Amino acid sequence: MKIFKQSALSLCVQASILASVASISTSTFAEEGVKEKTTGIEVIEVTARKRTENIKDVPISISAITAKKLEVLGSSGMDVRSLSAKVPSLLIESSFGRTFPRFYIRGLGNTDFDLLASQPVSLIYDDVVLENALTKGMPMFDIERVEVLRGPQGTLFGRNTTAGIIKVQSKKPTQDFDATVSASYGTYGSSDLRLAVGGGLTDTLSARVSLLQQDRDDWIDNKAPGFEKEDELGGYGETAGRIQLLWEPSDNFSALFNYHFRDADADARVFRANIIEPGTNDLVNDFDREVVYQDAALRNNQTIEMNGSSLKLSYDMGSHTLTSVTGYESAEMFSVGDIDGGYGASFLGDYMGPGFIPFPSETGAKMPDHSQITQEMRLSSNDLGDFDYQVGFFYFDEDLTIHNLSFDTLGDGAQNGIAVQNMETTAWAIFASLDFEISDDLGITAGIRYSDDERVWDGTLETSPFGAPGFSENATVDDSQVSGDISVNYRVDDEVNVYARLAKGYRSPSIQGRSLLFSASHTTAKSELVTSIESGFKSTFAENTARIDGSVFYYVVDDQQLTAVGGTGNVASLLNADKAVGYGFELDSELWATDNLVFGASLSYNHTELQDDTISVAGCGANCTITDPLNSDGRVIIDGNSLPQSPEWIGNLSARWTKEIGDGELYVYTDWSYRSEVSFFLYESKEFTGDPILEGGLRVGYEWDGDDAEYEVAAFSRNILNEEKLTGAIDFNNLTGYVNEPRFFGIEFKANFF
């Protein structure tokens, strides 16, 4: 199968051979097509409420990221993390590499890197929810748009959406022929090849094929004594594809089939021992991004294979539309890395480094089996007049097996520990939503959802790395909850809408058993409940050349699910905090200063605070400087702390200038994103704190028309200031950390045929 995928892409490629970051709107990049250039704020249509609507009429804080914008942000070959801090209140990070993104909206997220971990941000890709964090790493290519919905989405989407939703919509087949091919090359031997072709096969059947191939050479040298090797880490290879068939035998019925795959072979996250200056969060003076000192680098590897399919049926009965979405996803993965990030150990005398290495740590994970089945049935009214409604049923079933592994670094990497976890999750829900137009200017939306969840888990320590006896455990967690929302939308005039929204969401109960490998029992967490209130406005003015949207919000999380990772015992344990609160605001704007100059700006503020004077966690095993108080047991009191990976400020600025030259158009586009300081763990310390990050991008290109075609050539750079900042850490062994992506330069050629 792997051979087929790669060869198919190669043959297709061979055969074929900016607007506002802040505003992130379709209008911003509509002008990118030279042939039909438009100016001013355009209507943005989204499906945030499972209907196609003008974004201005949706009483939710939402950003829509267009295909053109996605291409700009991902032009360095970056994965979904390229969207981090590019819209208000959104952060994405990973300690697992390209395969395992962790999403945070309005400060709510989950720092747990276990394959069983749940997240309060749901990713919905082509109408199918991707529950496991591993599946959320599916590359975004040939995309129509990405919608970021902020706040609980407890009516139409239900469980595990307490923070919000990332909704990805790929380009769909049509009867009109079009084809796109793009190729880029840049720093570290990085290449990115994309192909998409679609059109009608018969009068009733259309198709679209989309392919992606990304590669990067290893570029990080290993200088550990006895393990020296140039260009050993940092590379990756990834192939992904999608085939869609759309059958429309009549005006009132359609069937859309989607098959997609992913095949990735990359290095796992590169951890670096003692790169933090003690007593500070500064990188050590001799830090070099292109050098590591690891005794297990040779075995660093991460592979993943994903396959999935879906079938969407839609039947228009006149006054109502019946929709069915059936989805299936499966994944396999293996990952191993040098967790201590150094070489040797203190008990080997002077052979250790860089700095003090208490003991070697080389661990991994394997997912040999995973399957997910989803089914949604939905009945929607079609413009009945003053009111419309939706009612539906949803079913979810996921079955997976995980192997948590340890390896003897000093014994040539022989596997010396394995714990096996099996878990089946079954959930179902019924929901209803009503839209009522009180007048031409005033509308109310109300929704309710009943959900039922059950997780059945068993785990076995088969082999302990420390010689402890094996044991088995099992657990079941279940819950049922009612969630929903109510909102009011008022049209002040043709230019301004204001809204208010009250919403409740919940995150289903969780089980954590990764610590079985270290002879620690599993832990569980009960459901967390979120109640949120927000108010906002959406406006266009100055003869449709300016736009500004804003929102203010406040939420309370009851029984906040937290994961205490690492610490002195190097275990991961779930716990519920009594309460957490968050509040803040979001602003998003766009200005067409002239027909050829567009500015964008956005700003968000998020304050989060844990409120539980009884909760405590283990402190760092490394020699870090904890700034929180300790209780009588020496544990760290985290009451009053902000949530981890929760920046207070996220901001964006962008500008795009164009000039017609010859038969085409020259453009210069720059974007800048900022996120403020974050804490990496539940406790606060001087070392494990991430400094603010300011990253900029620049793209200069030329677009022109040909016969039934459009062409573009561009040069670009990401992280143009070459910022070197900590983005995460490991706290149980030494002052281990990892950093952001390096500066990148590249060139790109793109052709669209129609």
Protein architecture, described:
It is a single chain. This protein is mostly beta strands. It has one domain: Beta Barrel (Maltoporin, Chain A). It is built from three helices and 44 strands. It has a 22-stranded antiparallel beta barrel. It has a five-stranded mixed beta sheet with strand order 3-8-9-6-7. Strand 30 (528-541) and strand 31 (546-564) form a beta hairpin. It is globular, with a radius of gyration of 25 Å.
Please give the CATH class.
Mainly Beta
Distance between the termini: 31 Å
The secondary structure category is mainly beta
Instruction: Compute the number of helices.
Output: 3
Estimate what percentage of residues fall within beta strands: over 45%
CATH architecture annotation name: Beta Barrel
Predict the CATH topology.
Maltoporin, Chain A
Count of beta strands: 44
Quickly count the domains: 1
